[in-house]
Amino acid sequence: xxxxxxxxxxxxxxxxxxxxxxxxxxxxxxxxxxxxxxxxxxxxxxxxxxxxxxxxxxxxxxxxxxxxxxxxxxxxxxxxxxxxxxxxxxxxxxxxxxxxxxxxxxxxxxxxxxxxxxxxxxxxxxxxxxxxxxxxxxxxxxxxxxxxxxxxxxxxxxxxxxxxxxxxxxxxxxxxxxxxxxxxxxxxxxxxxxxxxxxxxxxxxxxxxxxxxxxxxxxxxxxxxxxxxxxxxxxxxxxxxxxxxxxxxxxxxxxxxxxxxxxxxxxxxxxxxxxxxxxxxxxxxxxxxxxxxxxxxxxxxxxxxxxxxxxxxxxxxxxxxxxxxxxxxxxxxxxxxxxxxxxxxxxxxxxxxxxxxxxxxxxxxxxxxxxxxxxxxxxxxxxxxxxxxxxxxxxxxxxxxxxxxxxxxxxxxxxxxxxxxxxxxxxxxxxxxxxxxxxxxxxxxxxxxxxxxxxxxxxxxxxxxxxxxxxxxxxxxxxxxxxxxxxxxxxxxxxxxxxxxxxxxxxxxxxxxxxxxxxxxxxxxxxxxxxxxxxxxxxxxxxxxxxxxxxxxxxxx
Length: 557
Fold this sequence. Notes:
Layout: E1 2-10, E2 13-19, E3 24-29, H1 35-45, E4 61-69, H2 74-82, E5 92-100, E6 104-108, E7 111-112, H3 115-125, E8 126-129, H4 140-151, H5 154-180, H6 184-201, H7 207-219, H8 221-237, H9 242-248, H10 250-257, H11 263-289, H12 295-314, H13 319-337, H14 339-385, E9 392-403, E10 406-415, E11 423-424, H15 425-428, H16 431-445, E12 453-457, H17 465-478, E13 483-487, H18 491-494, E14 499-508, E15 511-518, H19 521-533, H20 539-554
Parallel strand pairs: 3-13, 3-14, 8-12, 12-13
Antiparallel strand pairs: 1-2, 1-4, 4-5, 5-6, 6-7, 9-10, 10-11, 14-15
């Protein structure tokens, strides 16, 4: 779950800290108070691109920090391991993002990461649904993803996707060889030269850094010899070395021990210092032996560094890129040198993979059709609760040629009223209807989804107040399995929250500030009253607010 969110210098938020609880967290406030600031901050932490214009006026940076607490951390720890990061300590994960006018910083448990890494983690932590995201229900890709998530077909889809990708790669290699046409001889010459050049250079990972260190040392060999010679002389070989001084104090300390007992410790310490002085001098001598003031060696090092620089300039800018170019060139050279045989071999590989793709695609399609009936029935049931008592929801699947996500064309169908024919969802749903379809879909998927936090930003947009109570109950039902954050403008939804956060703004010294506070008791009644009556709040609206809260506490989905 999301335990806390801190926002600094983002839009109206100078320094806002919010604590969330399990269950349904509702967020309310007047238009313009800064509710969307919380979702914006969370979006930044989930890897969305930053709008630098939102940095608070007069500040050079904005930041957001979220603390997640997880009961089951296996999924997130697996993602962290894939990113080369240590696992969560005590099930806690801290995401932090700093946005500056030029540049920024992304941190996961204080370790710097890329924006893509934040996205990968965010996909496992939060499902954020904005006021316009319901349009994704119109896209076949999103519809297939919903169906596969409901049917738990991740493994089957991944197996199909792997086979499809391998078939695509073989087709690309075949096209590459075929495209060479009459230019095969010149391409063979070019590739052979490239392979020979890199092989003869004997490029190796790590060698360039080793050579550069030796080159720097060899270039300053004379000065190194002078300095180390002075060190050794001062320690053991000079006219009055430190070792001789420490050895000389042994005799007076022996005599002093008979007069001062503590002198025994001094003598022992002086003897140890003398021994360490000899060891230090020996270590310096060994290091000096590796230093060569050899012009021939220095020239070889210069040539070797020049070779690396030349190859990096030609083949990608790094040693791994050079080695990747070598492997790719070897493969392409082998393909072209045995062009006829390779084409025949690749053609056979493609046919075998095409057969595998179609077999896996057909199996995936059969499972999708089984899941589609169950999903349509479940969504229809949720829609009945959300104000469509005689509606029908359907999922139509049609066989198509293999695509990256399967061999099934998909269309979500919807008939909101009795007597109407089933038509594609994208053609008939109003904004209010599609919002409820999205909520019904999320409610069904919540039973199967492992993502711990669901965020709904004005899911009730374009809905009338009469539907608010049903939407609130639906969200409360989802919150039994997930932590839910919901920004809402409907009091009928807000009363169902187990935690109620109110966003307000104030003006101090000519500057506007957003503030977020948890409201309970009379303060919560006052916030519901404001949502009901605005500036025209009265004793009647106050009583109504109390009644709504009491009914919500008694209501159970």
